[in-house]
Amino acid sequence: MVTATALVVAAAATGCGGSDDPTTPTTPSESPDRGAAESGEDRRDRQGAPVGDGSGDVQLTELGDFEQPLHVAQPADGDDGHVYVVEQCGRIHRVPVTGGEPELFLDLAELIVCGGEQGLLSVAFDPDYAASGLLYVYYTDTDGDERIVEYRRSPSMPPVADPQSARELVRIEDFASNHNGGLLLFGPDGHLYAGTGDGGGAGDPERTAQDPDSPLGKLLRVDTDDGDTEVAALGLRNPWRFSFDRETGDLWIGDVGQDELEEIDSATRAQITGNGPAPNFGWSAFEGSHRYNRDQRAPGARPPTLEYGLDGRCSVTGGYVVRDRELESLYGRYVYGDYCEGELRSFIAEPGGAARDDRALGLRIPSLSSFGEDAAGHLYATSLEGPVYRLTPARSR
Ligand SMILES: [Ca+2]
Fold this sequence. Notes:
mainly beta, Neuraminidase, 4-stranded antiparallel β-sheet, 3 helices, 26 strands, about 40% strand
């Protein structure tokens, strides 16, 4: 049962763009090109490989019902057919993909503050988790600061994380309850990446996003040995969810916007993991393609791959480039959605270029809080109202 109050609270969870600066009127931006239908022969990626038409043939298969779920992950070995569902208020459940009773894997409820955009925000498993038993969580602690902490699996069956094994890698002081980033993912180079928000308030008040010395407003590369961090990308407002294309290693970020524009940013694998300058996505010199803080400069800022105005939508939920061969209509397309509207959409994924053929899939998930991908490339989506889904081929008629 979802009450109106719960929805209002939930609406803040992903950094609802238009709501955090009441002094600035929300001005509808001009409607960005959402992509005209293209002929079949144009539906190819930059390597010339065919991609899906984005037209459907996909259904939502419910995995279970949880308390404010906002992330799904799985160790690289598939963990005997189990995925892990993260609940905002601090619990991680180990869940059979084929259905069945969830097992409580880790409970951090006493360590975190939960509500709005705060809480336990993601889990990532060491690429060698089967042998090492190491996993990493990102949460806002009871002081409202961000923490990245390592845990270790205990030898029990079913497996659980040992709460006594906590080893703090990163602690980031934060000045406001919103814009906390929150996703941990291992990249194609085997390093741990973390998305951080600009700290919060509205309009980048501390001017953190373009400050190379601030850990806020960044994509950070985290050394899991000593907790050292490097800036992998900057100029981000609240990169709530990002992903790496499992085939190309390219980076995709859903960066939650301020008053006018939600944006999806991208960069190639080489631009993120190579030795060149960290890609700059422009905030807060720019909101999407619009100039924003005129006292800020963003040298070499990259325009968004896609931006959209707040016509019933409020907060982008970044997704994945689909590499599940069973989802033929989505193959090679970037799937994303909006927290408020909940409509799943997709476009042809070419990092650095403008989105092509952006279109609705015909599925809607209210309070769409996150996407997730398992070790085999199957896609999941969570609703903060409870359900967790796997995207599966539509049943034959
Ligand atoms: Ca914050």
